[in-house]
Amino acid sequence: MDKQQQSELDLDRDRQYCELCGKMENLLKCGRCRSSFYCSKEHQKQHWKKHKLICKEVEKPLPLKVKSEPGPPPGGDTRAQKPPEKSPPEPADPAQAAPEVSAGEDGGSPATPNGQVSSSLQKLALEVIVPCMNTHGICVVNGFLGEETGLSVLGDVKALYETGKFTDGQLVSQKSDSTRDIRGDKIAWIEGREPGCEKIQFLMGRMDDLIRHCNGNLGNYTINGRTKAMVACYPGNGTGYVRHVDNPNGDGRCVTCIYYLNKDWTIKEHGGLLRIFPGGKTQFVDIEPKFDRLLLFWSDRRNPHEVQPAFATRLAPRSSSLCSSSSAPPCALMLLVPTVCRYAITVWYFDADERARAKEKYLTGQKAFWLPLMWICRRGLSRFLCSQVKGESRSNSENPPIPASRMTTSSTNAH
Question: Among 87-96, 144-153, 241-250, which range has the highest average pLDDT?
Answer without folding.
Answer: 144-153
